[in-house]
Design brief:
The protein is an alpha/beta fold. The protein has 13 helices and 9 strands.
Length: about 375
């Protein structure tokens, strides 16, 4: 039902990416926003309230930064979007360094709305030596594990708290991905491990983009893991469907990065998903330049979305068949492609009847 509503609502905002702060306590070698960090001018709480009021109801709030938990008012920011926009899911990535601070804030967020799903994504780029080296901060791995333990204790009382791991795939992390994946699954007990291919200009050139061969091997491993998980006995249909859809999105990412393939569906950047930066700049896509700033338009987000500049950007996206490897935009666009949803739905049904017997082959099913 959720995907049917999204499918039929192709012109309304469904997902907002909001960089709540530019402040960060780390200088990660893999960071591709390093030039924009720790700048003055983050939106104040009242400004956030104003632009939230201009937005329609939407489902998913993807927070980013900087380090979101450095904002003391983070729970209040999320409360604003719950009140004005009736969000169903909030996702918060974190360096996971400030264990007590994060656990306290998450505990407050969980009390805002009994129906709100709270996803906390721990940034983990390797085991201890690799992770600490990339973070440029000894002990960061140990802090991340401590944060996970604190969140896991909260999750026992709050079933809508989901803990996941984000890993940047680059030349500095590629060799340890198998060991890290095993650690995340077996030691941390986390089955939601997302891998994002390095993009942009990292602060350390040695952390640059990986070769096509390495990327294909890493993503194929992720795809196989997800399909295996979906085929395990006892997996409910909704979880099986979501897992298989995630595997399909990774296959899109693989084919785009490794084979320069275009998506087999349209990009919905600027229509159902958009980005707001710490200073109020607004863009249809993270990979495109901002179109305007909320501070220059009375904090009216929808006025910007209706502007000629915004429409020109959407026309340019459609004209050139814009495509990328950014999972947020792949995920937001695939949910509007009926043929894909039906194919994944069918596979989920078949695997439910014959667990582990159905082994398809991904995007273009190869």
């Amino acid at each position: 039902m959720k995907y049917l509503k999204i499918l039929l609502n192709r012109r309304s905002l469904d997902t907002l990416i909001f960089f709540v702060t530019s402040k960060c306590n780390f200088r990660c070698k893999t960071c591709f926003y390093w030039k924009s960090l720790n700048r003055p001018g983050d939106l104040e709480l009242q400004e956030i309230d104003s632009f939230s009021r201009s937005l329609p109801h939407f489902n998913v709030l993807l927070l980013s930064g900087g380090e979101p938990f450095l904002r003391d008012d983070l729970p209040e920011i999320i409360r604003i979007f719950c009140a004005h926009n009736r969000i169903k899911v909030v996702s918060i990535p974190t360096t996971a360094y400030f264990s007590d601070r994060i656990a306290s804030a998450v505990a407050r967020i969980l009390l805002l709305d009994p129906g709100l799903q709270v996803n906390v994504r721990l940034s983990l780029d390797g085991l201890q030596e690799t992770h600490d080296a990339i973070r440029n901060f000894p002990g960061s791995f140990a802090h991340c594990i401590k944060t996970h333990e604190a969140l896991r204790a909260l999750a026992k009382k709050h079933p809508l708290l989901r803990i996941g791991v984000n890993t940047t795939v680059c030349m500095r992390t590629i060799d340890g991905l198998d060991r890290l994946s095993d650690f995340v699954t077996r030691q941390l007990g986390i089955d939601d491990h997302s891998m994002e291919i390095m993009r942009g200009d990292p602060s350390d050139p040695a952390c640059g983009a990986i070769t096509d061969t390495c990327a294909e091997a890493a993503l194929n491993t992720m795809i196989r893991s997800l399909r295996h998980r979906a085929g395990e006995g006892g997996t409910g249909f909704k979880k099986r469907f979501r897992t298989l859809l995630s595997a399909y999105c990774y296959s899109i990412q693989r084919d785009t990065y490794c084979h320069r393939a275009h998506w087999p569906f349209n990009c919905y950047a600027g229509r159902t998903i958009a980005a707001v930066y710490p200073n109020g700049a607004v863009a249809p896509c993270e990979l495109l330049e901002p179109v305007a700033n909320l501070r220059d338009h009375g904090y009216d987000f929808m006025t910007i979305m209706r502007s000629a500049e915004w429409k020109n950007t959407l026309e340019a996206i459609a004209r050139r068949g814009c495509f990328c490897t950014h999972r947020c935009f792949i995920d937001a666009s695939v949910t509007h492609h009926l043929r894909t949803l039906l194919a994944v739905f069918s596979r989920a049904v078949v695997q439910g009847i014959t667990p582990k017997a159905h082994k398809g082959k991904g995007h273009s099913e190869k």
